Amino acid sequence: MHVQKPLHGTVSIAATYTIMGYFLPVHLKQFSRIYPHIKLELFENQRSIIETGLLSGKYDIGIVINDNLTCPDIVSETLLRSERRIWLPSGHPLLEKEILSLNDIVSEPFIILDVDEAWETAKRYWNTASTMPDVILHTHSIEAVRSMVANDMGITILSDMVYRPWSLEGKRIETRALSKSEVFPMSIGLAWRNNVEFTPAMQAFINYFRKIFMCSPGYQNRNVDHFI
E-strand spans in the chain? Predict the structure, then answer.
């Protein structure tokens, strides 16, 4: 009887701040449980640095917000799409509506979580609406955003992936949907250099995510230049 040998190897993984904090840890744990002899080298970096690292061979695979990718020599697979919604404090008058538009919130004090090029992304859909929010703060702290929204100091638009219903003070944060024609979801996925030769360990890492997400409605496999 043939016994398959355990798969060995090393995979260099680079992820952006949001992916490392809110998406990746549970998958790293599960992958290492399935493939205990594959070593994962982990790096957190900005999208532009990850793209450069993929092209140079410093990183084998990136896990990124695919919408932000710019290099045509990077191939990506979108694993899932996380809806962006408006975050509001409990009791806010706008909670009376189930679906809101950007015009509904344009006069509200607005808080920007300024990581992973979030403001650059936000400007795309605000520009499409031919208006801009009343921004009172740019911050790199998700907890600052939660606390300010929960304490009725402003509102924000962020994805479901980073949403938690309570601030550090224990105050409630509510969400409302936005018109899908105005605000697009956040796409999370894998990225690698075009025409790179996958090692068995790299292929195992990619296949792990494909197995989990390929039946998801948000799954796509395409080159970046199809959608930047």
Answer: 9-15, 38-44, 61-65, 74-82, 84-89, 99-100, 109-113, 134-139, 156-159, 173-178, 186-193, 220-223
Instruction: Kindly report the pTM of this predicted structure.
Output: 0.86
Query: Which residues 6+ apart lie within 8 Å of 215 measured at CB?
Result: none
Those residues with Cβ within 8 angstroms of residue 125's Cβ, 6 or more apart along the chain or in another chain: 102, 182, 183, 184
Q: 16 φ, ψ to 5°?
A: -80, 170
Residue burial 195-215, b: 16+ Cβ < 10 Å; e: rest? eeeeeebbebbbeebbeebee
pLDDT in tens, the chain (228 residues): 454 678 899 999 999 999 999 999 999 999 999 999 999 999 999 999 999 999 999 999 999 999 899 999 999 999 999 999 999 999 999 999 999 999 999 999 999 999 999 999 999 999 988 999 999 999 999 999 999 999 999 999 999 999 999 999 999 999 999 988 889 999 999 999 999 999 999 999 999 999 998 755 444 444 333 222
Count the Cβ atoms, other than its own, within 10 Å of residue 90.
13
For Cα atoms 200, 61, 18, give the angle at the middle one, nearest 5 degrees. 140
Residues contacting 206, CB < 8 A, separation 6+: 61, 77, 190, 198
The one-letter code for the residue type at 162 is: V
Closest CA to 200 of 8, 2, 54: 8
Helix (H, G, I), strand (E, B) or coil at 18: helix
